[in-house]
Design brief:
By secondary structure, this protein is mainly α. The chain contains five helices and two strands. A hairpin with a 7-residue loop joins strand 1 and strand 2.
Length: about 150
């Protein structure tokens, strides 16, 4: 069975563009006075609003970090007045995290900057992603389509 061709150049370009965008977000977060992970936590708290309780467990899943890592981030942000936590009314063992006005204001500033950055850098990222998807789809079709034998 033939192996799929790998477009390493496009994969590398996509990874570079994603990393560049993320690094700019990290620099912006630090410039605003929060650690990059704290910014991501604020973003997830706001993004999950209205989808159910924003619990420590849900945040751990969304951030792809450990439960106690989220607790540490929440503690630091709570000390700064950016988030608050309450017992989950449905399950008293759980903790629900909510944004406070200071966290909401900081997040809004950073989100507006993120959107402007995406407007500028997004097209190159989308182009690389489309190129990978098209090539991958084309290669898979080629592998699935049986070759016709020539008859003489």
């Amino acid at each position: 069975m033939p192996r799929e061709a790998v477009d390493y150049a496009t994969l590398a370009d996509l990874r570079y563009q994603i990393r560049q965008f993320l690094r700019l977000r990290e620099v912006a977060a630090r410039g605003a006075g929060v650690a990059p992970q704290q910014y991501l936590l604020l973003l997830q708290v706001r993004g999950l609003r209205g989808r159910g309780p924003v619990t420590i467990g849900a945040l751990a899943e969304r951030l792809q970090i450990t439960h106690h890592g989220v607790v540490q981030l929440v503690n630091r942000l709570a000390r700064r007045g950016m988030v608050e936590r309450h017992r989950d009314e449905r399950d008293r063992r759980g903790v629900v995290v909510m944004l406070r006005p200071a966290g909401e204001a900081l997040l809004r500033r950073l989100a507006i900057y993120s959107l402007a950055e995406l407007e500028a850098e997004g097209p190159a990222l989308v182009t690389s992603l489309r190129r990978l998807i098209m090539k991958s789809t084309r290669d898979r079709r080629r592998l699935r389509t049986p070759r016709r034998r020539r008859t003489r």
